[in-house]
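User: For my dataset I need records formatted as: sequence, then structure tokens, nothing else. Please produce one.
Assistant:
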Amino acid sequence: MLGQTILHYKILEKLGEGGMGVVYKAHDTKLDRIVALKFLPLHLTANDAEKARFMQEARAAATLNHPHVCTIYRIDEYDGQQFIEMECIDGETLRRKIPIQKTDDALNYAIQIGEALQEAHSKGIVHRDIKADNIMVNAKNQIKVMDFGLAKLKGSLKLTKTSSTVGTLAYMAPEQIQGGEVDARSDIFSFGIVLFEMLTGKTPFHGEHEAAVMYSIVNEEPDSILKFKPDISPEIDRIIQRSLEKDPEDRYQHVDDMVSELRRSQKKSTRVIRPSTSGVSAIHTSSVENKTAPIPSSSSKKKFMFLGIAAVILIAAAAWFYFFSGHQQAVDSLAVLPFENVGGSQDLDYLSDGVTESLINNLTKIQGLRVIPRTAVFRFKGKNVDIYEAGSKLNVRAILTGKIVSRGSALDVQVDLIDVKNESQLWGNHYQSDLNNLLTLQDQITTEVSSKLGIGVSTETQQNLTKRATDNTQAYQLYLQGRYYWNKRSAVSIENAINYFKQAIALDSNYALAYAGMADCYMIQSQYSGIPTKITVPLARQFAQRALQINNSLAEAHTTLAFSYFSEWKYDDAEREFKQAIALNPRYPTVYHWYNILLARTGRIDEASVVIKQAYDLDSYSPVITLNVGAIDLFKKNYEEALQYFQKSIQLEPSFAPGYEFSGIASMGLKRDQDALAQFQKSVELSGRSSEALSYLGYFYGKTGKREEALKLLEENEKRYRDGTGSAYNIAAIYEGLGEKDKTLEWLDRDVQDQSTWTTDLLTDRRWEDIRTDPRFVVLLKKVGLVK
């Protein structure tokens, strides 16, 4: 655009670019002045609803006329793209001045920021994204707060990582992170963080990774500013601490109260320097936004055109004759094979996988219909499948197949229902739609498939089949992407899943399934990334509770909440939630799987054996459920039987690292050390040298006299522990292999102090056999609540 003239603006230079658009310095030839033009990304204003929302927000912001607010002159459009003409600031971001050496200078800036917020809040405008990057300091040392009215477009949970903290996240109020209501008091919390950062160069809530920062903001008390600046007035520390209260009710209720106290504090400790607020020159721009992946725009719902009346009558008549005239038995069992992404990029696999999983979940609601779970059917993904062979292996009456062809946003979908027994097609249909109508498309497919099964589906069930968790198609697509990455089960993929679920929540703050997805991610994140469970488990619980506040009938969220309670040694609460989840959805395999873990690890082995077999009956193709069936035999020292299940779990998923770990333990029980070594080494390779896998191999090395090799892995795991990517439990296991009982118990005690979820395995982990009678070990069992 440089050198071009757009309307009556001559573009002079590019000033910055970020998640909220590109900013150019321009000459307004009509009024002969230098301005900044901010062009909004197309995805924020791509449809009428979003455009109207943007105009409403921007117009509200344009009413602000205050010396410490960047002035918006007008809103316009060029070549279909919205842009804002605003004051161009000659200066730099506050970020570049941090830390501010003189307390008086920091307080001057803080008072000006507070005055800007006072003006906005008095007009009902909440910024939602106050941070050092959104605040400019001009050439006259005056504060200019940028981007009022734009933060809402970004959504309250859209985050951007940086090297040591997490962009916008580091400034968020607890209620923003938890998806609650955001109001002026949320700005006050962020303002308090900015003040803390101005004075110290640090933010009050820390973490090596995103989960740790979130946990810190929601659960931990902030550092006192006196820790970093002991000579500062305790009054300033008190003001900051009050602004950072977790509960909005305990913070300043109005920013003018905070500003008033800052002024009083300044008068007591320093000379009062009232900044001049006259005149503004121009050359620089607003902050460059932290770059985040764009969220697709939401679109208004459109309804499909149904077939002509004559065609409907013919289809209905044919279906009646086919299903109810005695020529066709009802379909009582069904497998939905993974829909094929035809000719599309791998980036669209989330779509074909998501449609498949959604249809499975919807059709499972039909009474009298056995639907094969996801783990079983996804074995066939990407393979040349013989439909009838697959139907025979899965033991179902019918198979549903589909192909999706994506051309830009346009979708062509072919769906076929195949009778496996009679080797004939029961029904098929071709749909033409687009991504904006994905929810409607799925509803139509679900409705038509259910009507072709020959099962009497009640009106209530039919309505339940297409009951939506969200009406926002873009949020739904982001949710599908989250589930796609969650199912990949790796440290990186879980982090990707969390980011997608957050973006879905940003578009629909009442999307219960997206909160449940967040809970599921944090529930398993420690196992794959090594992040301490004392950080991840409380986050899992909080998001599960938020999902249930919205929809208390979600068995998945009750299951995750139950496992979070179990991980925190609240066994009665966990069992209550597990039982409620089973009552809500007795066909959900994971609830039996996780309930079995509680029963087994608290010594109720016989009950656990019954429950895990219920999970296995529902989903015998799940590697982790198969593994847990074998775990019961392992506990009973039935090594051969256990090994068969562990090997089957590996056959089901060759990259399943825990399958190799458990195979190694069973092989050790059978005195097959060479087999055990190969299994443990494979686990380390597949897991990316996870703390857990290293502990198994290190334990083996210690037990078999390879002390030097064990010590190397011990050193690696101790470093992981110091870095926050490993547990004390996994260090203790290597010491136990080396026969160093005191060190073993010392590290296990540290794991208990860390409130690690690993400690719930003290009764069942075979590696502790030699120290189970030690009084110190019994004390640990009592602390964890595993014995009375």
